[in-house]
């Protein structure tokens, strides 16, 4: 029974796939870390910065403050420092009604997959 249930779970996007899709504009990438974390380590090139404190306001389709990029219909990938907060963010996005949502882990996963980092 357990294997049967797992057969219907969606496969998680890898960080390497996210790097490739972000480079071609096929993916909306969101960094959910707070500003001090970005200042210390930069962010993935092409990522939108939406800290958890503003996540509901900036991502809920019913919010007038929703990011226009989220209406594109493109898959969405989220990351944080380790993957824990981005797991929560993925759950929130699913509850908001987004279907193709992925947690790619932390910024280090992005970097190990060859993803470029930009600093302010």
TrEMBL record:
PROSITE patterns (alphabetical): RHODANESE_3
Rhodanese domain sequence ranges: 23-119
Gene3D superfamilies found in the cross-reference section: Rhodanese-like domain (3.40.250.10)
Alphabetized InterPro entries for the sequence: GlpE_sulfurtransferase (IPR050229), Rhodanese-like_dom (IPR001763), Rhodanese-like_dom_sf (IPR036873)
Pfam family, one: Rhodanese
Top-rank taxon: Bacteria
PANTHER family found in the cross-reference section: FAD-DEPENDENT OXIDOREDUCTASE, PYRIDINE NUCLEOTIDE-DISULPHIDE OXIDOREDUCTASE
Name the UniProt record assigns to this protein: Rhodanese-like domain protein
Species name: Salipiger bermudensis (strain DSM 26914 / JCM 13377 / KCTC 12554 / HTCC2601) (Pelagibaca bermudensis)
